[in-house]
């Protein structure tokens, strides 16, 4: 029989359970299928330049774009993957060829490329990254910076075999 | 005489100040002219939101009520033109970003606010076209609701944009727009039209 006390108690227990499972991330459905692939962002491909050269640094540097590239499913790091990076910076517009550069991931799947300071454009400072090679599905990312004064920005790729 | 001059000076400063700040921003470096024009059109549209309620409450010295309503109509259409230029310019600059915004799928929340403001502005304008058919008992409250939505979403849009407008000048203009709109509503009381005679 449902009394007011049992009603309140079951309600509190249900609320507590919901908070616990929500907080511990147990309700993420992707976990069943392993590491989910990163969806491509439509705005990410804007001003992309296929075949931008591998560079040690874009322009005069001062800002770091970092991230990782992993394989969907098992989450294994992917070395030697080419990532193109570009943004609107203190040294040029997104569409300018000299604003673009590519780098390769290290053995642990990490990449790191120095570039000029990103400045706000289109309402919020943001960068662009692309994975566009043969082995995996193409992914374009457009991460936004929390603060335009930040001197680093991070973006992680989880790629789906093509 | 001096007071009239001060009111006009304050209005010109409130709108002209942010425009000058935006037009001289270091962020304009490397931007194409169409993108710069699109940004300034947005600033001008925000400025128009300040003039509109002031015209209706007779807050602008030297503008007689008949003339004021006429100017309110012209500035209303000018506001639509500014917003059209703002969106068209952004579209030319970066089509995918604008498509995402218009479809409410953008990663940046301020763009959704801006799109809501655009729809509310269109609603406010369409209502003026049907003004005579609707009659003041429907038109005034409906136009007021649309306008309040325009003002709130426009301000939320503007303050979240990290752009060419200076922070101080932007917050100042937004605060003035909010005050002028609230003042006009309190003075004109459009909800009175809803009461039965």
From TrEMBL, chain A:
It comes from the Bacteria. One of its GO terms (molecular function) is oxidoreductase activity, acting on single donors with incorporation of molecular oxygen, incorporation of two atoms of oxygen. SUPFAM superfamilies: Aromatic compound dioxygenase. It comes from Sagittula marina. Residues 1-32 form the signal peptide. InterPro entries: Intradiol_dOase_core, TAT_signal. The keyword Signal applies. Keywords: Signal. This is Twin-arginine translocation pathway signal. The keyword Magnesium does not apply.
TrEMBL record, chain B:
InterPro entries: Fe3_Rdtase_TM_dom. The chain crosses the membrane at residues 71-92, 112-130, 142-161, 167-186. It is found in: Membrane. It is a multi-pass membrane protein. Keywords: Membrane, Transmembrane, Transmembrane helix. Its main location: membrane. Signal peptide: none annotated. Residues 59-152 form the Ferric oxidoreductase domain. GO terms for cellular component: membrane. This is Putative ferric reductase.
